Amino acid sequence: MSTPYYVPEENVPLPPPDADVISTACDYCIVACGYKVYRWPVRGGKVGGPAADQNAFGADFPVDPLGPWVAPNQHNIVLHNGEPHHVVIIPDKDTEFVNYTGNSSIRGGAIAQKVYNPQSPTRDRLKSPMVRMFGVLMPVPWDFALDIAAAVGNHVLRKHGTNAYCVKTFSYGYMENTYAITKYALRDVRTANFTFHDTPSDVTSTPGFRDAGFDNFAPAYEDWRDAETLLICGTDPYETKTILFTDWIMPGIQNGQKVIFMLPRRTAGVAYAEKNGGMLIDIQPGTDLPVVLAIARVIVDNGWQDDEWIKNWVNSKWESSSGFGQGTRNTPWQWRTTWGMFQTDGFEDWKEWLLAQDYAVPEKAAEIAQIDVQKIYTAAEWMAKPKADGTRPKTSIMIEKGFYWSNNTGNTQAISSLGIICGCGGRPGQVIARAGGHQRGGLRGGSYPRNKSPEKLPGRRRRAMDVDRYLMSGHTRLAHVIGTTWVQAMCGTQSLQSKFDELTTRNPHQVTSFDKADIIDTLKKRADSGGMVVWDQDIYLVDPIGARYADIVFPAAGWGEETFTRANGERRIRLYPKFYDAPGSAKPDWWIIANLARRMGFQGYDWRDSNEVLEEGSRYSRGSRKDFHMVKIAAHREGKTLHQKLGEYGTNGIQGPVLMLADGSLEETKRLHDINRVLPETGPVGGTVFNKKLTHFNTQTGKCNLQKAPWNLFSSYWEWMKPREGELWTTSGRINERWQSGYDDRRRPYIVQRWPENWIELHPDDAAERGIESGDYVMIYSDRIPVQTDTIVGVEAADFDFETLLRNGHIELTRAAVTGVAIVTPAIKKGVGFMDFLHTSQPANALTGRVVDWISGNYNYKMGVGKVKRLGESPYKHQFRSMSFARRDIA
Q1: Tens of pLDDT along 813-825?
Q2: What values do phi and psi take at 647, rounded to 5?
Q3: Is the pLDDT confidence value at 326 over 80?
Q4: Can the peptide bond before residue 139 be classed as cis, meaning omega within 30 degrees of 0?
Q5: Which position among 3, 4, 455, 749 has the lowest Cβ density within 10 Å, counted as fewest Cβ atoms?
Q6: How far apart are CA 567 and CA 627, in angstroms?
Q7: All residues at 6 or more sequence positions from 373 whose CB lies less than 8 Å from its CB, including other chains
Q8: 628 forms bridges with which residues in the sheet?
């Protein structure tokens, strides 16, 4: 249910001229807009005035609409050094990059409401460690909780082995934290039972990009603006990374850029593109591959491919195989790029393969995807047909989760090949990459022990462990969960939740003592009996992973409560300084991990602050897209810390990889794979790394691999999942107003009123057949959610085909149901329902199959199926205080 009403404040204090000014960046989407925090004491009642010399903005109020005005949601009160302080947090009007217009999304624009204030809905922040005793989570001192966690953790490692100890963590929660977590899990615990928040296995999200040699975040944001044709697959940047669209793509459209969207629904960004000469290819879920290859076929049939680019930048078979020697190729990208299923002998061989595939014939692809075939021909022409003067269109390709989480390997192989023949690479306005979801806060402190994974593929190849399936098999005895809503975020949510229940709350060994030794003994017995103990580390108590299953809860400090570092989608590294006190005794994740690791007997966790963590980790960034090691070197030469040096760059940040030149100055990297970039002839200076990706592609030779994309590796699963009588495809994604699981948005009265519950968009024809109107409560349900139950040893490739798994008894069909509020709109394709992807109480992923892409190990999150029936009217149907049913596809 929603808040009955939301009445915004009408008055907001202006910061006085002497307010502290702190540069930071938004905590939410990949764009990471620059912000400024204005902070001053509440004591004394001092506030700024309307005249320019009376406020910190130096502006006369009222200001123009894009001036430094302050909305009610941009003000809050926090504790700083134990004293109440005002904070005003607004976009940085002086920044030169990212949100250079001083603009913001609805998410970042209200980020001041994120900070802890006991007089706001954030009052339920975790403030103290808690241990579950007598079925209740009770606050305890840090030493009490950490002693228990260390004793039980060491017991599990000694008695059950490293793979019994699972670490499931965020991948983005700032480099200081992710370095500490991965150092602990991968270098010291050495568990293969490890993965990040958005995948069941520690694998690349875009295997086809990796195999082709493309970095996920190679472009500069200006490249998206400067393309003449932009193909966007699986996302609407306006809804999901707003400033990337409004400040970068929209100016391109206004300058004549043609944008092609490939999505099953029309949204605001799509509508704007169509209004300005763009196009929507409205595929049904999972059919991207045939359409992409059909576009490629039209291009090669007409001879529109970029022959010069292909001649200079595409590998032959000998080149793609070079340098591997005679040994086994266990690294996934090695065996994929040299396996006959994908490998080609250059363009002509790939073309011959393409022309032999019936599903790449435009008419056949259009039939599979249920689209107008003319859109395939139009897309090919826009992307590749030379102009009258013989010059080629500058084409770029952007993909995101709606695309690569539907046929993960096949789609990313296909789109890479389309990009290569169109000349998308490392040139201004001619790029191919992900758009991005969350920010890039990963810094690995250890390497994944793939040799310890039980996942065995044909040809002596290993894949990272499927953590969900390992848990479902009863092998996980301790799960340390950090900053993720594990259960609802994964596929087949409700069967996974049932297994959690079995291993934790339904195990007979429950703590019924207040004595530390008794608690430790009880938790050891649960692990020894085949059950599981759970530590949960987060900023809020998440249900069910924390509220229901956790034996210990560690309260974490987040954005603004510790000094952190992170990069955005164009590799721009910024400092996120601490500007207020964390609630209670909450600590940053690096501190929690360090104190746990020391108690478990691991060495090298004696950091005094977050800067020391980052300085230790900087050398592990060398050669990566975020390489900032030389910033540390420069800082130390100047007698500064790494954090101090990064802070000097303010909201502009510094674009990685960062090189040091012979004179000691630092050089940024605008884009990766920049074939026009000239590196110093004298070579790298000191610890500088000249990574191949700076000027070439990430392959053996530095040229691109043009790979096949067989539909038959996926088609049996797609055919089986395809809706049957009375069913609809159920897919999901983000919307503009909510971020991730809504962990902050559930505590913002306006957003709660706007989106109080999950919902499902239905086409008017589908709704009419079921007697459903906008505002009705509906149930989306299925009794055929496929779940892969076993870890099998693959001998033949066919062993992992879905039909074979089903026939051999490795697939269990489970049931699932979620409720939602119907939104009837022609913006969604007929036969498809679209939901918010992570409402924790109504998780759309419950309807998706827990069967991984067997090549990559990723889920196909965007391919659920279910029936929809009306339950009755919701309270939102006839009142206008909450939940609008207005169309979103307007421009």
Answers
A1: 999 999 999 999 9
A2: -65, -25
A3: no
A4: no
A5: 4
A6: 10
A7: 362, 363, 365, 366
A8: none
Q: Rounded mean pLDDT of 583-596?
A: 98
pLDDT of 1 reads 46
| C-beta of residue 636 within 8 angstroms of C-beta of residue 612 | no
Both tokens of 464, joined, read 């990272």
Helix axes 288-301, 408-421, angle to 10 degrees: 20
Please, which residues bridge with residue 94 across strands? Answer: none
Cα gap 539→586, rounded to integer Å: 8
Instruction: Write down the residue that tokens 């101090």 correspond to.
Output: 644
The answer to whether 211 touches 342, Cβ cutoff 8 Å, is yes
- Return d(Cα 699, Cα 704) in angstroms, integer: 7
Q: Collect all residues with Cβ–Cβ distance below 8 Å to 197 and sequence separation of at least 6.
A: 168, 169, 170, 171, 172, 483, 484, 486, 489
The mean predicted confidence, pLDDT, of the chain is 95
Q: Is the model's pLDDT at 595 over the cut of 90?
A: yes
3-state SS, residue 577: coil
Q: Cα separation of 749 and 746, whole Å?
A: 8
CA dihedral 711, 712, 714, 715 (to 10 degrees): 90
45-77 pLDDT per residue, tens: 999 999 999 999 999 999 988 788 899 999 999
DSSP string of 704-768, one letter each residue: BP-----GGGTHHHHHHHS--TTEEEEEEE--TT--TT-TTGGG-HHHHHHS-S-EEEE-HHHHH
678 token code pair: 């000239």
Q: Are 756 and 876 in contact (CB under 8 A)?
A: yes
Spatial separation of the C-alpha atoms in residues 345 and 348, rounded to whole Å: 7
Q: Contact 431/424 with Cβ under 8 angstroms? A: yes
pLDDT of 463 over the 80 cut: yes
The structure tokens listed for 612 are 């020391």
| Of residues 760, 718, 699, the one with CA closest to residue 286 | 718
How many Cβ atoms sit within 10 Å of the Cβ of residue 760? 28
**Backbone torsions φ then ψ of 363, nearest 5 degrees:** -65, -40
Q: Which of 715, 712, 759, 718 lies closest to 737 in space, CA to CA?
A: 759
| pLDDT tens string 659-671 | 999 999 999 999 9
Please report which helix (H) or strand (E) contains residue 224, including its range.
helix 221-226
Pairing outcome for strands 136-139 and 533-538? unpaired
Q: Which helix (H) or strand (E) holds 262?
A: strand 258-262
**Which of 530, 571, 469, 490 has its CA nearest to residue 788?**
469
Nearest CA among 664, 694, 689, 662 for reference residue 678 = 694
d(CA 405, CA 461): 23
Is pLDDT above 90 for 860?
yes
Distances (CA, A) of 474 to 380, 592, 845: 50, 27, 22
The CA distance from 321 to 342, in Å, is: 12
* 777 SS3 class: strand
- In this model, does residue 3 exceed pLDDT 60? no
346 with 265: CB under 8 angstroms?
A: no
